[in-house]
Structure formats: structure tokens, C-alpha cells
Amino acid sequence: MSESYAEKMLNAIESGQLEEAKKAFAWALREDDDEILFNLAEQLYALGFLHQAQRTYLKLLQRYPAEDELRTALAEIAIDEGNNDEALAYLAQIKPDSPAYLQSLLVAADLYQTEEQFEVTEEKLQAAYQLAPTEPAVLFALGEYYYATGLFTPAIQYYFALIQAGVAEFARVDIAGRLGMAYAQSGKFDQALGYLKQVAPGYLTSDIRFQTGLTELNLGDLKAAIVTLKELIEDDDQYASAYPALAQAYLQENHVSQALKVAQEGLGVDEYNEQLFALAGDLAGRLGETTLVEKYLTKAHELDPDNLAITLKLSNYYLSQNDHEANLAVLTIVNKAAVDPQVEWNLAQSYQALEKFDAAAQAYENARPTYWENLTFLKQLLGFYQENGDQALLLDTLEHALTLAPDDPELTELEAQYQAF
């Protein structure tokens, strides 16, 4: 049997002879039979030759105007090319009694999802589900839609239905992997790990391996998490998210030096990750590496000056070093944007140390409602009132503090001191 022009075209594409492919394509449209052309259109679409696939489908649609399957194919090409109005025009021609109507609903859902019209997307997918509740393409489309929009509980429902139907893979996606990821994102780590461990080797992506390690970490299986994450980094050392997770696993195992080393390696991969800099700062602090603490926390703050948690870490470091000018420089900017009780407490301590008593009094007053039951705060406040000479507020605060800790030696000594007057 002689080679068709479609086969000549595909062979020419494979060998990089695009001019020959162009000539063979022209002859294929003229000479090859319709079944060959339909198969050619599918292969061209899969190879990314959208214009040629479109021409082929249009040629077939001229011959078979009642074949709505051709319209759904043309709509998919139009979506890929960003011609959504054209795609809608094709889909509008497909009526509910058409054999291609189910596919047209799925294509329409894809279109509306690209336009972020999520309510319409869901409506189309649920309509498809009503028509064919056991159809794998429908179940997969619903699972992918809910997964992509962060609605993991309904996504689990449809992925699980695929597993029950014996569908292990669809559209080059491992369903056990998707199900495991969805369970993990829902916080159901036991179920997640069971499915993540079932992923076929050919689908064991870095994302799947990372989620497996993270799930083991969340389940407290630190040794397994360390093995999984170390192996991931060995195979894909540019997977930045693995480093903080591995550092956390080492930290929970009390291997702080190893945790810091991993965090530092991660910074070599992702030098703009403020959370990793903050983690490295925390780890350095546990090891007493004060120079590194300041270096890492300062960098984290520079990368994200609006991150209050990082700002407070840096502030706490400056307080521990009695660097009150630096602390005020960091916190006064934050304080203008939004009052936070921890910021106010930290400000109060530095204002007091620098003998800016009016500012300290205001900051303590701002923090007081939040920390009125915090003994550490109350003791610092008592010290401020002693230094500031405000005996009435001191006695009021002392009385309250003694209700919280009546046997505290510092408080009872202070009480005795004032009772002596």
C-alpha cells in the first residue's frame, strides 16, 4: 500500500523538512480520503500545528456539515489561539440532541475557565455530569476544575470516582497522585500519604515527591520525611520549596546545625525567599550565631518590609541586643501603617530604654489591653512605672498582677516595698 500524503507530511515534520511537509499537506487536502484527513487533523493538533489542523477540520466540515464533533475540535483550536468568540460560535451550533453535545459542554467549560468565569464553568461541567455521571472525561474535568480553584473536598469526590471505576490515568495525569495531593491540601494527611505512595514511577514528579515529604512531615514521621526530601533535592536541586521543609524536619529532630545548613543551601537556590531567610535567622539564633541572625533577618525584612511577622523577628533580635535605635527604626515605620499590640510592646521597651518616657507611656497604654493578663508584660510595665515615678498606676498594676501570681517573689517583694511607706 502506497504511503498517503498525510503520512509523508508527518514524516517530513519528524525529520524537520518543513517545506516538504508544507507541500505534502497541500496534496493531502486534495487527495487523501476523509478518514486519513481526520486522523491527520488529530495528530497535527497534538503536535501543535494548530493552523494546519484547523484547515483540515474546516475541509471536513464542508463535506460533513452535520458532524458536530468537527465543531468541537475547531472550538478547541480557537480557544488555544485565544479566539474565544469564534469558539463560542462553533459551540452555539451544537444542540442538546447532538452526539457531540457532551463534548461541547466540556469544551465550553474550558473556555469559560480561561476567562475566569468560574460560575459558568461549574454550570457547564455539572450539566455534563447530569448527562454522563460515569463518563471518565466528565469526572476528570470536574476533579481538575475543583482542584484548580482550591475546592479540594469536591475534587476528591470526582477523583475517587475515577479510582473506583478503575481509571488510574487520564490525560497523562496519575489519578492517585491528584487524589493524594487533594487530600493533603485538605489536611487529611493519612489518606493523602496512602495515595501518594501509589503513584506510578513514570508520574513521580518533583511536586508529588515534595508533597509526599511534606505529608510525612505533617504526620510526624520525620525520618521518612528527611529521606524523601533529601532524595528529591539530590535529583532536583533547584526545587526550592524542598529546602525549608527539610530544614523543618531536621529542626524537629533537634538537628539544628543540619537544619541551618539546609536552609543556607536553599538560599543559594532561591535568594529572594524572605521566609527562608527568616527561617535561617531563627536557626542561627538557636545556635547563638548572632551575626548570622542579623544578616538573615535584615535581608528577610528588606525583601518583604510589610511582613509583620518578619519585622517582629528582627525587632525581637534588636531588643535582645539592646540596639534600641535600630529597633525604633524598624518599628516606627510599621506603627504608622497599623497599630499592632506586639509592635507597641516592643516600641515601649525601646522608648523606655532611651528615656523617651512620653512615647513609652503611650506605647505601653496601646499594648496594655491585649497583654493585661501577660505576667511578663505586667512586670515590664511595673518597671516602667517605677522608673517613671507613677505610683498610682504602679499600685493598680501590681494589685492586678498579684491576682495572677500571688506567690511570685518579684511581685511580693515589690508589694512589701510599697507597704513599708
From TrEMBL:
Entries under InterPro entries matching the protein: Tfc4/TFIIIC-102/Sfc4, TPR-like_helical_dom_sf, TPR_rpt
Annotated GO CC locations: transcription factor TFIIIC complex
Keyword Iron: no
One GO term of the biological process aspect: transcription by RNA polymerase III
Renumbered ranges of TPR repeats: 240-273
Keyword tags: TPR repeat
UniProt keyword annotation of Transmembrane helix present: no
Pfam families found in the cross-reference section: ARM_TT21 (PF25058), TPR_16 (PF13432)
Superkingdom in the source lineage: Bacteria
The protein, known as: TPR repeat-containing protein
Species assigned in the record: Limosilactobacillus ingluviei
